[in-house]
Amino acid sequence: MAPPSAQAKKTQTLRRYGEHGLCLNTRTDVTGVMYSDCFFVEDRFMVEPSPEGGVILTAKFEMRFVKKTMLKGIMETTSRGEYTDFYKGFANMAVEAIESEKDKSEDPKIDELLVAWRKFHNSSEPSFKETSLEGAPLSCSIDEFYNYFLKDNAEYSMEFYQREACGDTDIETSEWENSEDPFMQTRTMKYLHPVNAPMAPPLAPSSKRQELRRFGDHGIYLDTKTRVNGVPMADYFFVEDRLIVEPNPEGGVILKSKFEMRFVKKTMLKQLIENITKGESIEWCKKYAEMARKAVGEMSAKKGSVDEVPQIVRSSRAIPIEFSSPPPPVSQKPPRMHFLTCLVFILSISTFFLSYQVHLMNQSMVRMEMRLENLLETQSKTFCVDTNISPVEKRSKKK
Description:
- This protein is 37% helix and 28% strand.
- It contains seven helices and twelve strands.
- Strand 8 and strand 9 (203-214) form a beta hairpin.
- The longest helix has 44 residues, at 339-382.
- It is flat and about 100 Å long.
């Protein structure tokens, strides 16, 4: 019921008191949105010296209502969250800017990659609720990881993993393309995913849209959006995950992974789907870490040296990853109880539940009919007249 964008006006008053502090008062008015004429927001942003050195930022605000409305409480709650997020983001931006200026003053030749890495690394968007891989150490550098796993036609590419570990077929992967962001490249993967479930095709068309951000030797971010078609309830959501590769202080790199399901339609089974997907994502990352460990060992062996890294991998479910020598072969068969199978199972459960509800309603209707018949029978007996009584008996009854 609101336009995609609204016109807003800020009226600001700045007061500066030398080295003692700053005070910025702002009045914000919004137009073109329902109930926006009922209020305006006034906030105060203060900068004052800190006894420990530096400065302290303080922000306060309040909604000023000029008309009465029954939605006052809801509007205040919504504005409180928006203004809190605004000033948190502003504070983070200020900290990053000050750190960046310090680095430039200490080293005039500081590269822009480190500044971009810190900015992106400290960003809170997009958010990911679940952690599928907390830390998987690998004995390789950032450049080696990119060359082994991510570059076009890499020997151990994502296509290789999907085919060998997941059983996917007809995989088509585009080459990395540059974007407007100087640090980001994009590509698309299309493939057929095997489905072993009733009411579903044997192969489901799937796609991955990937965004790769590489910040030199400081780290790599790989964001992926996965969608599946042709399976019940698959159009209700997509899965977004983030793979982070960053330097390990003890040498090599560390892999981290987060994910979240983005629902585009409402469903009563949201919680159940999220629980199933959580287990599947953790298992996927566990196998990927195993594959990466094996691949790094093979590539290092070809070079004639293998650097050992402590075998520590932690996940949100505390699932340990153990690597043996030689590692077990990767299964060519897809898991029997994968995510798509669970979706069909969920649909079957919901159908059974509806059928059971209809059965209960039918039983209630039968009981109501029986009660109605008994009531009618009782009433008919009450108002029944015996026509066989003689006139003498009638007169005696009247007396």
